[in-house]
Amino acid sequence: MPNSFVSEGHNGFEKADLHIHTKCSDGIFTPEEIVEKARIAGLYAISITDHDSVLGIDKAKPAALEKGIEIIPGVEMSSTYKGHDIHVLGYFFDYQHSDLKEYLDHCRHLRTERAERMVSKLVKMGVKIGIEQIIVKAQNGSVGRPHIAAVLQDGGYVKSFSEAFSKYLGAHSPAYVKSIETHPADVISLINKAGGLSFLAHPAQNVPDEILKQLITFGLDGIEIVHPSHDTYRQNYYREIANEYFLLFSGGSDYHGMRERDNEIFGNVTIPYQWVEKMKSRLLNA
Ligand code: AMP
Ligand code: FE
Ligand code: FE
Ligand code: ZN
Predict the structure, then answer these.
(1) Where are the domains of the chain?
(2) Which of 67, 68, 122, 218 has CB 3.0 to 4.6 Å from 185, enough for a Cys bridge?
(3) pLDDT for 4 beyond 90
(4) The dihedral of CA 6, 89, 164, 172: what is its sign?
(5) What is the average per-residue pLDDT within 208-222?
């Protein structure tokens, strides 16, 4: 028997990708280009989840409307807990919400300041780059380490993107500066305040199990199950944890475009649309 929350016109097995970056943060494609890729890949719904930015959503909407693709408001928010970089995905929130907007504006400044601090560390190490180059690379988007990595590569300081991280920018490398230090509970409550659902992003990427259990107590609505860094074993593992705590499932490609770690094809990492329906049903019953 079909689930009651599956709307007419689809069976719940259509594909969705709820983790995509654009030029509004560290992706290389515009939101409009992403929508076109989604059309070609035959995706039913997508969410643009830029790092600490919602500016891509309005850019994607007209193109998505035209092509009949559902856009779920999304964001990937940075936070820090016990020294771990914790990424929280938000969905279905009011992306015009004033508290959220104000907070994301603040993040924008923090990210630019952080890039300035990383650049001065690099300059002291003899790497002659300037903050202006990073700003140009980021093209008005949320500034992040990938923009610095790209400038390092352009300048011939590293041969590859991954070398930029291992040699300079990684969490244990000399030019690293800590990311946004907001507590994940605050990020989660901001998403809730704006009417959305929060998910822990890619737990297999540096979230030890005891930390994951603590994060759940902060009010997460779900866990990202499908992610390129999760093999089948990990997917099943996190699914079991989600089920144990009555949490929702999310997932997506974490597509950024190009780069060695992202030599994936758009549309290859997806979730069944039914997971999205379950999110909607949770929101209705909240
Ligand atoms: P930031 O938000 O500035 O801390 O940068 C984090 C982003 O950098 C991630 O979302 C990835 O896009 C990218 N990133 C992190 N580590 C690596 C790595 N080792 N190689 C390539 N990209 C990375
Ligand atoms: Fe990124
Ligand atoms: Fe992330
Ligand atoms: Zn991401």
Answers:
(1) 15-97+196-284
(2) 218
(3) no
(4) negative
(5) 97
Which has the higher per-residue pLDDT, 281 or 285?
281
Which residues, other chains included, contact 112 with Cβ-Cβ below 8 Å and sequence gap of 6+? 135, 143
Calpha distance 209→190 (Å, rounded) = 24
Q: How far apart are CA 68 and CA 270, in angstroms?
A: 18
Please tell me the residue having the least CA distance from ligand 1 atom 13: 146
Around ligand 1, the residues with Cβ closer than 6 Å are 26, 51, 78, 144-146, 161-162, 165, 170, 179, 256, 261
Site to probe by mutation for ligand 1, drawn from 145, 159, 178, 255 as the one with most ligand atoms within 8 Å of Cβ, is: 145
Q: Record the pTM.
A: 0.95
**Spelled out in words, what is the top-level CATH class assigned to the domain 15-97+196-284?**
alpha beta
Nearest to 234 by CA among 213, 218, 257, 251: 251
Q: What is the DSSP letter of 195?
A: T
Estimate the share of the chain in helix, then strand, then coil, as percent rounded to the nearest 5: 45, 15, 40
- 230-284, pLDDT tens digit by residue? 999 999 999 999 999 999 999 999 999 976 555 678 999 999 999 999 999 999 9
Closest-lying ligand 1 atom to the alpha carbon of residue 26: 12
Tokens representing 238 are 């996190």
CA atoms of 233 and 272, how far apart (whole Å)? 18
| Distance separating alpha carbons of residues 59 and 61, to the nearest angstrom | 6
